[in-house]
Amino acid sequence: MSVLRLSKAVYDAIRAHGEETYPHECCGALLGRSAAEGWSINSSVKAGNARTDSAHNRYQISPGELVRMEREARKQGLSIGGFYHSHPDHPAQWSPTDLAEAHWLGCSYVITAVAQGKAVLTNSFLLAGETEEKKRFELESIVVSE
Amino acid sequence: MTIYIPTPLRPFATGKDAVEVTATTVAGALDALTQEHPDLRKHLFTSEGKVRAFVNLYLNDEDVRYLPAKEATAISPNDTLSIIPSIAGGGPQLRRRGRLSR
To answer: Has residue B30 been placed in a domain?
Structure first.
């Protein structure tokens, strides 16, 4: 099982973002470095949810915003290692939509369940597989350090 | 020009996050990229040779699909091309309660 490592500050930030945007889904990127067992995340970057038509159960980060995030990551000597979003009043489990719309193979997708405005469980899933046709989510461990 | 390779495609570009190519159009740049790194082709293009729907191409800060000439857009040596797979998703479809119209 792969491991996603992040600091408590980043962990708390992505969960707090889900509480801020409740009852809508929040989203953002995770910047870090790839290690043998998984990603080691240095920072998170909030993104706007472009799905204003259905923000309670859909999210999208606009490609233009992703270009800026990639640029910022390069400046910091980091890579986009994954993304996070929240599920308002729904489990921290990937949905068929999450899988269908996931295309960053080898990256971590972090989901936080936000129940009645409070962040509860946060899970991370590695988008595994060598191709778009064989992609799958695999649960990974989250290690939070001080 | 410089083509920036996103994280998921770097394993197919020998780990590189950027590749320098010489070309005169966006399409030419992609062709040069996949000639140098053939394993990228199936990730970028459909079997019909079109850019896959979830692959966004940005010439500097502009989405190529909205440029008048699209992939035939001319490029200059100082331009950059960013390959950006889409990122989206969400929870399950919520059930709606039926409402009677009045």
So the answer is: yes
